[in-house]
Design goal:
By secondary structure, the chain is mostly helical. The protein has three domains: 2-39 and 545-574 and 582-733, no CATH class; 50-185, D-Maltodextrin-Binding Protein, domain 2 (3-Layer(aba) Sandwich); 231-468, Four Helix Bundle (Hemerythrin (Met), subunit A). The protein has 20 helices and six strands. The strands form two sheets. A four-stranded mixed beta sheet has the order 4-1-5-6, with helices on both faces.
Length: 747
């Protein structure tokens, strides 16, 4: 121990008696602090100086017109940037800005393209397009500047986005407010719509059935139309034949009417003569009733009576012939027309059927009655004629009965005259007028039928066109019905989903609550979306600026650098003292190095506090933690050099390089490559930087204890290495050093 103290005191006496050594040592004490102070000062608050970072701004936006309103988002952005002092904005054209960026005069260039406003306006379209801001950066100029300028560009985009979202949402909430008012007015209609949806859901199966039936009916209708179209030529032919038949029938009726008009006077004349004959017979018989009849003239009288009776019968036969001809021709015409009408005439529209050209039932009954009456008259006349044949016999046999027979003949002839008179009256008043009237009616009916058929004949082409058009429409209708049937499952599912969703909403939400929500204040909503989230920053351990945050790292780094400087300029060996062991040399020189290291630490830590005026929460602990760190670092570096000589210096430099990258002093350990993350726990820098941060920002004693513990482990390990390995290893390292010096390249 005595030798250890002697070595330590000898070193300080040498320093005190040798002013060159004192000056050099003073420089070694101050020099590490300069390393820390310059780096801390340089990184004091770089982000507050971004207003001196030149960034080019190019506005090529041509503006746009959205719903009759002109917008120019690029120009508005330029006006905002002129008020912004976060960076040194330079407004230029593209060519000049890119040239300055190329030569490093600008760190970045931001270009607003010509379609910027136009794309922003597509927000009202069904397919909106995102507007783009072009950002160009020269990353060769500086490693940090691109990140800062990129942050500035992001701020611009965020500002545009914030303003745009604010305006758009303001407009949207204006519309929502109006929509809420309209919803409130139409609340009853909305509720009714819900009922419609439920009713539609209930009736969809029936609708599907009706559509299916309509599809089936349309196919049947198509078949019917095809059948009717096939019958149209036949209907056209039948119509033409019907017109011909009507023309023939009309001609026949005209001929029959003319013939009847020609025969009517003859019929009347014959009936009148027949009546006269009957009256003459009656008068003759009256005269025969005299008892003084000349029977010799009976034969003559009988001949006259027979002649007159035959004439009357012939006239009656003529009348019957005319009536029979009228009835026969009427029946023939009716049969022909009935046959014609029996042909199928498919027509698209019902037409009035023409009445038969023949006599109706009343007319036929009248003619039949007349024929019967005439037959009776003929029979009575024949009876009279027969009775006259008996006159000869009767007059010869029974004179008495002659009178009775004559009376009977007189009665019959009188009755015959009366019947003829009645028939003549009936013929004049009923038969002839009715026949002529019915003929005229038949002619009128045939005329109407002819007009109807003519119109039908004219209509057939139009009917054919309509049927063709209808067939085409039915085809289109079938396509629509088929589409409806195919889409029914989809529609049914969607309607059921809509109905279920309405029921779900009704169960979860009141429409009145939705209306109240839509009626919110648009201005308040716009203000909210302009800045929907306000970041409330609460610093648990507040750090004044970036320089303060970097003070622990640069201070610790300067202490290691100070140790390297000492071992580079000060020797770890002792000269001029005898009987000292390698172990005593190790500990004696260690005290010298540690004492100088403490002086370095005091200078750098007090300089941080009073020269740089770093805002440190626990300044005394900051100095004490610095002394503890200096002790461990100096022990490690000294031990390496003391044991391994120049190789130990190289090892200390390697330690420095690894610790700068892997200690987490500049970047979080989680952001480091995997190799550095793995070696991080084995580096003394990791615990030293963290220990100094506790003093700068605020103490968490658990972390302080952990850091001091691991630093103590490093100190113990290297202290043991120096105490036990210096003597055995020095022999080999001394030999290596002698050989290296012989090369003339190393000292």
């Amino acid at each position: 121990m005595k030798n250890i103290i002697r070595i330590f005191l000898k070193d300080w006496r040498s320093i005190g008696t040798n002013w060159v050594a004192a000056v050099l040592l003073g420089g070694l004490i101050i020099l590490p602090s300069l390393y820390a102070w310059f780096n801390i000062g340089a990184s004091w608050d770089p982000y507050s100086q971004t207003d001196q970072l030149p960034v080019g701004i190019v506005n090529e936006d041509k503006g746009a017109t959205i719903r009759d309103k002109d917008i120019d988002a690029g120009e508005e952005l330029m006006e905002e940037l002129k008020k912004n002092d976060r960076m040194e904005w330079h407004f230029s054209n593209r060519e000049k800005a890119m040239e300055n960026l190329k030569y490093g005069d600008y760190f970045a260039v931001i270009v607003i393209p010509n379609d910027f406003s136009e794309k922003l306006g597509t927000v009202i379209n069904d397919k909106p397009e995102k507007a783009e801001v072009e950002y160009y950066v020269n990353e060769k100029v500086n490693a940090i500047a691109p990140k800062i300028t990129e942050k500035g560009a992001s701020v611009i985009v965020d500002q545009i986005t914030s303003n745009f979202v604010s305006v758009v949402n303001g407009t949207i909430f204006d519309l929502f407010n109006e929509l809420g008012v309209e919803f409130e007015k139409d609340l009853s209609d909305i509720q009714q719509f819900e009922e419609y949806v439920f009713k539609l859901e209930e009736n969809l199966p029936e609708i599907n059935r009706l559509v299916s039936d309509a599809m089936s009916d349309s196919k049947d209708a198509e078949k019917v139309i095809n059948q009717v179209q096939a019958l149209l030529p036949e209907a056209e032919q039948i119509t033409s034949e019907g017109l011909n038949t009507i023309d023939d029938t009309t001609q026949f009726l005209n001929e029959a009417e003319g013939r009847l008009n020609e025969l009517a006077p003859q019929v009347k004349e014959d009936l009148t003569k027949a009546q006269q004959t009957a009256e003459d017979v009656n008068e003759f018989l009256t005269n025969l009733k005299s008892p003084d009849i000349d029977l010799s003239s009976v034969e003559k009288i009988r001949g006259q009576m027979n002649q007159q009776i035959d004439d009357s019968v012939q006239r009656i036969n003529n009348v019957q012939g005319v009536l029979e001809q009228v009835r026969s021709e009427s029946n023939t015409n009716a049969e022909e027309q009935g046959t014609t009408e029996a042909e199928p005439e498919p027509e698209p529209e019902p037409e009035p059927e023409p009445e038969p050209a023949g006599l109706n039932q009343d007319q036929k009954e009248a003619i039949d009655g007349a024929m019967t009456d005439l037959d009776q008259i003929k029979a009575q006349l024949q009876m009279i004629k027969g009775d006259t044949e008996k006159i000869d016999v009767e007059l010869a046999d029974k004179q008495k009965e002659v009178d009775n027979l004559l009376s009977s003949l007189q009665e019959k002839s009188g009755d015959t005259a009366n019947k003829i008179d009645s028939f003549l009256k009936e013929y004049n008043e009923n038969i002839e007028p009715k026949v002529l009237s019915e003929i005229a009616s038949a002619k009128n009916t045939l005329s109407n039928a002819r007009s109807t058929l003519k119109e039908a004949q004219t209509t057939i082409p139009e009917v054919e066109r309509i049927l063709t058009s209808t067939e085409e429409n039915i085809g289109e209708g079938q396509d629509i019905l088929a589409y409806m049937l195919n889409e029914y499952p989809y529609v049914n599912d969607k309607v059921n989903q809509l109905a279920d969703r309405i029921r779900e909403i009704q169960g979860e939400t009141d429409i009145n609550d939705i209306i109240e929500l839509l009626k919110n204040d648009p201005m308040a909503e716009q203000s909210f979306f302009e800045e929907p989230i306000v970041l409330s920053k609460n610093s648990l351990f507040p750090i004044q600026n970036y320089g303060t945050g970097m003070t622990p790292f640069y201070t610790v780094l300067s202490l290691w650098v100070g140790a390297l400087l000492l071992v580079s300029l000060l020797t770890t060996e002792v000269s001029g003292l005898e009987e000292v062991s390698n172990r005593q040399v190790y500990f004696g020189k260690l005290l010298t190095f540690i004492s100088v290291g403490f002086l370095q630490t005091v200078v750098v830590t007090l300089g941080d506090l009073f020269i740089l005026q770093v805002d440190i929460v626990h300044p005394i602990l900051f100095v004490l933690f610095g002394l503890a760190t200096s002790f461990v670092f100096m022990l490690m570096v000294y031990t390496l050099v003391s044991i391994f000589g120049d190789v130990g210096k190289a090892m200390a430099i390697v330690f420095l390089v690894l610790q700068i990258a892997g200690s987490g002093g500049t970047y979080p350990v989680a952001l480091l490559p995997e190799f550095f993350q793995k070696i991080h726990p084995f580096l003394p820098f990791s615990y030293a930087v963290d220990l100094m941060r506790e003093a700068v920002g605020g103490i968490v004693w658990a972390r302080v204890k952990e850091d001091l513990f691991f630093l103590g482990v490093f100190a113990i390990v290297f202290l043991l290495l120096g105490a036990f390995l210096k003597e055995p290893l020095n022999k080999k390292t001394n030999q290596l050093m002698k050989k290296s010096r012989k090369s003339g390249l190393f000292h």
